[in-house]
Specification:
Keywords: Membrane, Transmembrane, Transmembrane helix. This is DoxX family protein. It comes from Algoriphagus sediminis. The chain crosses the membrane at residues 47-67, 74-94, 100-117, 146-163, 169-186. There is one protein chain. By secondary structure, the chain is an all-alpha fold. The chain has 2 domains: 1-137, no CATH class; 138-198, no CATH class. The chain is 73% helix and 0% strand. It has 9 helices and no strands. The longest helix is centred in the first third of the chain and has 24 residues, at 2-25. It starts with a helix and ends with a helix.
Length: 198
Amino acid sequence: MKKFLIIGISVFLGFTFWGSGMAKLFFEHKFFGWIGPVWLIDELRPYGLGLYGQFIALSQIIIGYCLVTTRYKLIGSIMMIPLIGNILMVTISLNWQGTPFVLGFLLLLNFVLLWQYRDFFRPLIDENDHHSYWIQRGSRSTKGHLVWLAGLGLQIVAIPISFLNWPLSLGVVILGLIISFLSFRADKITKIEEDQIT
């Protein structure tokens, strides 16, 4: 039950930020997502911060994708802290009402994820402590990492495609997701191959 809760939080946070970033960069903001604003880049452009808005959107895509695919929950949840901090500062600076409360809730969910990986943080705090107990987790392979990266690459490629052919761009997004989820299968195949060699 606990495992499904953590995966559920990861997918929810991932979809929230990945979808939000994609909606900001997709043609006419035609991408599904429940938080916005999708016009953030246009809102920041008069202040000379249009590029910063694009950076936030791209960061949302990468960090959210780490979480929605569940492969890099720890990396995604660590990177989520400065991402939410940046978004929070923008919303406060522009006097947007309500958004800080939503971000506070999402940050709380993120801390729930981080708590599941608390054993990884002890060496960072103690620095020289090499005797920390780490919970055993599934092994990952180079092949799996590359498969996942191919899926992420397709997410980025889908953005310019959306300006030419919107249905095709959605197909590229879905294909990228499927490929990234196959990274876990690539890990298993690699493990089987390694076991056969030894």
